[in-house]
Specification:
The protein is α+β, with helices and mostly antiparallel strands. Helix content is 47%, strand content 14%. Helix 2 packs antiparallel against helix 3 and helix 5 runs antiparallel to helix 6. The longest helix is centred in the first third of the chain and has 34 residues. The protein is elongated. 18% of the residues are buried. Bound molecules: copper (II) ion. The site of copper (II) ion has 7 residues, from loops. It is found in: Cell membrane; Membrane.
Length: 394
């Protein structure tokens, strides 16, 4: 019994609610950590901001409680004077209408203010289809949202209790049951089928001429990028070959490995099909490129890939967003450990000519240290390095 009393205690529940609210505020008040090349910093909590919102919440609760008490006292004094008391049903009905209007304004505010904080237009070909799906789903759910909420709260007001009227008792109606089962079923089926075909198109595995293969390997807390050299083929990898200098475990028994390039920034030529070969070396990471609407898990031991075509260059996007410092980024989208928040790399979409110029400046994966480690003959290594400088990708 004591336990039941403990669980049902109103004081305890109030404390729990206050604790949850405080916790949410603490999380939301965390200032975004410094990005870029700087030292990883621990996220800061703005305690003044947190207590301000907690205080505002308690003041609003206090205000509501005071108004409730005043109305109760007013009601009692009316009754003492022999008059009819307050019409509480009308009070509740009006509160429902106020809630409806405030709620609709809140939805409008959220769309106009927070709507502008969403991503810029999709910078990839398939991203346009994904955005279309989001728009269709949002429009449909918004129509349902507004109709149901307006009906719910206006009915609560319109048909509040009245002594002059008796409610119609409706225990069951098959027609209504059918309508609200079949209509959502049809709409959801259309959305799912539409989504299925879009996903199938995005995950099309057929090879296209001109595909650029890029290896992206996640480890705590960095993305390693490897580009193929002039042969256009990425050398094979084997996790058993991973060493200090051969971070990705590239197999140098195959010739295709020799001209591979290790890069820091992911350069992509515009309007070319890119195939990202995704791998992880420790825990699950996730390749997340929001501007291209690309996201796929990087799972240790399970190589995956994602194909997409960038359509807007970084320079164009800088103009469109009116932000001269705009950069596309590839993030990690799995909470993979302490340094997760800083696991990102810059992605630059450039013209074909700029891409080739950049590619020719990249260093080979096969570094001098790695050659020493593999006991390569000096003559062979100098030959392969000179070839790397002319890397082409067509
Ligand atoms: Cu990660």
């Amino acid at each position: 019994m004591a336990f039941r009393k403990f669980i049902n205690s109103k004081t305890l529940l109030s404390f729990f609610a206050a604790f949850m609210l405080l916790g949410t505020n603490v999380l939301m008040a965390q200032t975004p950590a410094a990005t870029g090349a700087g030292e990883p910093e621990a996220p800061q909590v703005d305690w003044a901001g947190v207590s301000y919102y907690v205080l505002i919440f308690f003041l609003i609760c206090l205000g509501v409680a005071v108004i409730g008490k005043i109305l109760k006292i007013y009601d009692l004094t009316l009754k003492i004077q022999g008059k009819k008391g307050l019409k509480w049903n009308t009070v509740m009905g009006v509160i429902c209408l106020v809630f409806l209007i405030a709620g609709i304004y809140g939805a409008y505010w959220s769309f106009t203010v927070q709507g502008s904080m969403t991503l810029p237009e999709s910078a990839s070909a398939h991203g346009v289809n994904i955005d279309e799906m989001f728009t269709v789903t949002t429009v449909l759910t918004m129509i349902v949202f507004f109709i149901t909420q307006i009906l719910l709260f206006t009915f609560l007001f319109r048909y509040r209790h009245s002594d002059k009227r008796r409610a119609y008792f409706l225990p069951h109606d098959n027609t209504i049951e059918k309508i609200w089962t079949i209509a959502p079923a049809i709409v959801l089926t259309i959305l799912v089928v539409f989504g299925f075909f879009t996903w199938q198109k995005i995950m099309d595995t057929s090879e296209k001429v001109g595909d650029i293969n890029i290896d992206i390997t996640g480890h705590q807390y960095k993305w390693e990028l490897r580009y193929p050299g002039k042969d256009g083929i990425l050398g094979p990898k084997d996790f058993k070959l991973v060493t200090g200098f051969n971070k990705l475990g590239v197999n140098f028994k195959k010739r295709s490995s020799f001209d591979d390039l290790a890069v820091d920034t992911m350069y992509l030529p515009v309007h070319k099909t890119i195939r990202l070969n995704i791998q992880a070396q420790d825990v699950i990471h996730s390749v997340y490129m929001p501007h291209f609407r690309v996201q796929l898990n990087a799972v240790p031991g399970l190589p995956t890939f994602f194909k997409f075509t960038p359509t807007i260059t970084t320079a164009e996007m800088r103009r469109k967003t009116d932000d001269p410092k705009f950069e596309y980024l590839v993030y990690c989208n799995k909470v993979c450990g302490g340094g997760h928040y800083n696991m990102q790399a810059v992605v630059r979409v450039v013209t074909e000519a700029e891409y080739q110029a950049w590619l020719s400046r990249q260093k080979p994966y096969l570094t001098d240290q790695l050659k020493k480690e593999l006991h390569f003959a000096a003559a062979e290594s100098s030959k392969s390095v000179s070839q790397n400088r002319l890397a082409l990708n067509n």
